[in-house]
Amino acid sequence: ADLIRLADYQAPVFHVPRTSLDVALYDDYSRVTTTLELERRADADPAADYVFDGVELALCRLEVDGQPWPKAQYDYDGERLVIRGLPERCTLLTEVTIKPHLNTALEGLYMSRGMFCTQCEAEGFRRITFYPDRPDVLSRFVTTIRADKARFPLLLSNGNPVARGEEADGRHWVTWEDPHPKPSYLFALVAGDLACLEDQYQTGSGRTVSLQIYAEPRDLDKLDHAMRSLKAAMAWDERVYGLEYDLDIYMIVAVSHFNMGAMENKGLNIFNTACVLAHPATTTDAGFQRVESVVGHEYFHNWSGNRVTCRDWFQLSLKEGLTVFRDQCFSADMNSAAVKRVEDVDVLRAVQFPEDQGPMAHPVRPAAYQKIDNFYTVTIYEKGAELVRMQHELLGAERFRAGTDLYFRRFDGQAVTTDDFLDCMAEASGLDLQQFRRWYDQAGTPHLAVQGHIEQGDYVLTFRQWTPPTPGQPDKQPLMMPVRLALFGADGQRLPLPDGSTETVLVLTQEEQSFRFPLHGQKEAPVPSLLRGFSAPVELDYAFTTEQLHFLLAHDDDGYSRWDAAQRLYHAAVTRLLSVPGEAVRAAAEDEAAALAPALRQVLARADDDAAAAALLLTLPSEQALADRLPELDVDGVHRAREALRAAIGEQLSSLWWQAEQNNTLAGPYRPVAADIGRRSLRHCALAYLAAAGDARLAGHLTVLFQQADNMTDQLGALRLLVHYGLPGADEALDAFARQWHDEALVMDQWFTVQATVPGETTLSRVQALLAHEGFDWRVPNRVRAVLGALANANPTAFHAASGEGYRLYADALGRLDAVNPQVAARMANACARLPRLPEGRRALLGGALRGLLKVPRSANLTEVLERILA
Ligand code: HT7
Ligand code: ZN
């Protein structure tokens, strides 16, 4: 596929003030008749042809101002329709047929369990009709949907229903009108027989909005949490950003077949069932939190994305980075801010940092792409959110809000750029953010090396920053970064700083910079608490001593800093164990555990204050995260060392783990509230240590927990430990689980994942069996991710098996999936991006498997990802 470059951006040749769609849905095809009012832009080249995107459309009719347009005056090559000689203003009518029932790529109009639905971002609309399918063409849409009334009683689109009627043959139609001009990627249509949970929301200005959440009738009892979350998000956006909802209806529809989490179509969000359905019996705590955050995210897009949208797809992070930042703050306010921050940083460091350090590295505002679908990445989303967070840190809450007020006011109804956003921040604050722009264009994780020493009675901190080269960007410039800092004295208290405070934000702009802090006669160097709240997305290199890390873990009042100190202690312990030969690992792990034990006991002793924070502090980094910090991925060594350390910690603190498990056993009905979620997570953390220790009482205990659980968090937690540690009762529990939940797709996804993540190479034959299971379906992305995504992302010892069997299995699966759903296949191929960090033998095996895949033609999506990994 051709490379599309930001530098080549050109404004559209024509406006489309009005778009009328007439979509007639039938069993084996749909007929789409589109009427576009076209107006050549005043500044456009008068000789330029009108070009419309349109992929795999069967063109039946093309008329201009009511007359057939001569065939010699247009060309269609299967992707683009070029019309020559159009008048400056005209009405274009096209009629096409499409095949939604054959659409397994889940882009454009497709079918999911008997209902019709759409996914248009980024370039799905061109699979429905001919259109200038680009985000900077905004139009008012009127949509009429026609379908069989008995099978599709519900016909939905964006905006408000304005007319309806009946036709011959038991068919009916509904017309929807959306008063807000929007780009085509925000168009949506749904036709089905769905149940609805309805509620209302009164906006700050007194308007009543009807809230409607649709799902299959069997799922009607799983919509309350989404509705609560939606109302909370609406109130939050009014309170925190002064932004109100702008239509009379807000609809969410749950669909089973969906490539991502959800989609913010104007007034008609379409959600993956996994991000909207929630019920204590079938949904884990993490699932409940995901629903809250995704419902918030899509709602917040109504302003950051829909009212103010992107000029082109290079600006994707304009809406995604800002909206992730907004949803992170919303979840932080709804739950525990400190815990939420650690969870977000954990994802960033575990997933985005590796992306930014590998062959898929790209800037938050990329300069070029082949398939935009491949750029819905953690860099665009999560690193993009960190850039917005840094602006918040640099400006402070008040000036940041002045900046967003200006942005939404100035650009309402427009398609703009990340530079426009930054200009508003600079203008509203008076800050010079020129250098900050580099963050958007420069890929890679910056390193920040810090050294401290005492000089003439002052404590001097020296910061040196650099960013390693990334593909296509060998040379990097210094960045503007906020470093939040406190200094701790030996008594565990924060020292006063020159500005009179005890916590400050240093703004770095140069490659090397020093800052002096008077110690007022104190002789000892303080312990620095650096990058508090993870104030910049960088790799911090500071040679903390073990004592300093224990000190910070005990005294630091910043949640992130304490967690980071614990992570550093665990990393160091596992790294030391890696060099211990086989038989001696157990004894060495006991020594490591003994050294960690006092700190862990202290965390457990204080766990009642914040159980969720305690669970995070007590959880070792994942195998992947540990391996990522080594010069080369040593998956087997890391697994052995980590398990040995977990076993030793489990044994040495055994009685405390049992105590934590008892203290955090909740009475009363399940509630998805932060305090209870925290206690359940601490309880399961304790159980996991006991499992690692091989505690003899555990299997029976877990079996009882599994059988008596009244919620999915407990039931699944017990099942996972039984199965992963091969405990007595594991097979029976798996069977019982499948019997109980065979009819609940989202729960069965978990059943597949539990089995695909059993550590060790033997799991590969199990995965083969899961792929052949009657419940496995290549057309359902959730199920594919549950097995293959879990294998590649959460089971390093199986995926990276020395035999190369994991790679072969995965490559075969990617090839098969690509024929069904290229977007999902390409996303899943990203799991192979650690290839350059593998030891030689494995690198050759994975490289061979991926090159083999490219021996036959593959989709442009998959090809782009594989070629970049193999480059
Ligand atoms: N803005 C939405 C993006 C999205 C998407 C992109 C490509 C292919 C399928 C997709 N489904 C949803 C999601 C969001 O960030 O809110
Ligand atoms: Zn989004």
TrEMBL record:
EC number: 3.4.11.2
Annotated Peptidase M1 alanyl aminopeptidase Ig-like fold domain residues: 444-542
Keywords: Aminopeptidase, Hydrolase, Metal-binding, Metalloprotease, Protease, Zinc
InterPro entries reported for this sequence: Aminopeptidase_N-like_N (IPR045357), Aminopeptidase_N-like_N_sf (IPR042097), PepN_Ig-like_sf (IPR038438), Peptidase_M1 (IPR001930), Peptidase_M1_dom (IPR014782), Peptidase_M1_pepN (IPR012779), Peptidase_M1_pepN_C (IPR024601), Peptidase_M1_pepN_C_sf (IPR037144)
CDD domains from the UniProt entry: M1_APN
First-level EC class: hydrolase
Signal peptide annotation: none
Entry's Gene Ontology molecular function annotations: alanyl aminopeptidase activity
Record bears the keyword Chloroplast: no
Domain Aminopeptidase N-like N-terminal: from-to ranges: 89-186
Cofactor field: Zn(2+)
Pfam hit, one: Peptidase_M1
Chain ranges of the Peptidase M1 membrane alanine aminopeptidase domain: 226-439
Cross-referenced SUPFAM superfamilies: Leukotriene A4 hydrolase N-terminal domain, Metalloproteases ('zincins'), catalytic domain
Gene3D superfamilies: 2.60.40.1840, 3.30.2010.30, Neutral Protease Domain 2, Peptidase M1, alanyl aminopeptidase, C-terminal domain, tricorn interacting facor f3 domain
Catalytic activity: Release of an N-terminal amino acid, Xaa-|-Yaa- from a peptide, amide or arylamide. Xaa is preferably Ala, but may be most amino acids including Pro (slow action). When a terminal hydrophobic residue is followed by a prolyl residue, the two may be released as an intact Xaa-Pro dipeptide
Domain Peptidase M1 alanyl aminopeptidase C-terminal: 547-871
Family membership: Belongs to the peptidase M1 family.
Protein name, per record: Aminopeptidase N
